[in-house]
């Protein structure tokens, strides 16, 4: 999925690091091109972003080898070269981790990169209540965590996602699905070295409502690792809050004062925050961006019933207008009508 970012802090730090080390022309090996350009046509920024993340994950290396190449892209002072004869000559070459590299610059460059890249925001997923979940819920939770790691990589690095009070069972099961570098704590110690005045717990049942200003004011966002598909757990996040005596602000993500249709999956909550903070989206737009089809249908039905007390008064044109507002294709019209009739 391609996201139009206003601020790509990863690429900003990575390109600065390359230039600082005298690398302006960066060549990609043939194998690297196949890895980087899988699935979609990438912009120069996206290519550099993916390279930076892959270097962190040790899937790619950056070597001193100079390669010939054709100019394929340019971003923030870095020229990207694809293999070709008698064209530009690179200052360094990106290769896959299994390719030969006479002198690997990766460790040196990554050390500089990590010094430069912003350390905030940080998302803290608290898994204190893992054992309360049914096995089916655990599978759902694991899936949300895997997707959350992939979401964070579209905006930041693995180090911006921290797991707190995470059982060894969760770690072992997660490693079967994805390789990751996210800090992992089996206790609540991370809470002791963060600035609690800049920490916010996102709780769907909190009385206070999150504002756009809050997204920029706080640097640490605590999210409960909770799934309640089989059993309702309305105050589970508050239980985590009390368990660790967090003493931080708690706020709920709502749309026009209501949580109906507002996504509560961990990965979507993280994506929502980052779309505002780094993607320059407004609150309402970011919520709609993160909504799934079912979320949108629930929200549209809620909005219509709020305006029309009697469902018989709802006009076809009104439904279409709300579908446009929530960017829902017309093929879902029958589902909305069925839900309205069902009451």
UniProtKB/TrEMBL annotation:
InterPro entries listed in its UniProt record: MT_TRM10-typ, MT_TRM10-typ_sf
Keywords, ordered alphabetically: Methyltransferase, S-adenosyl-L-methionine, Transferase
GO molecular function: methyltransferase activity
Gene Ontology biological-process annotations: methylation
Keyword Transmembrane helix attributed: no
UniProt keyword DNA repair present: no
Domain annotation SAM-dependent MTase TRM10-type: ranges: 105-300
Protein name stated in the entry: SAM-dependent MTase TRM10-type domain-containing protein
Gene source species: Ignisphaera aggregans
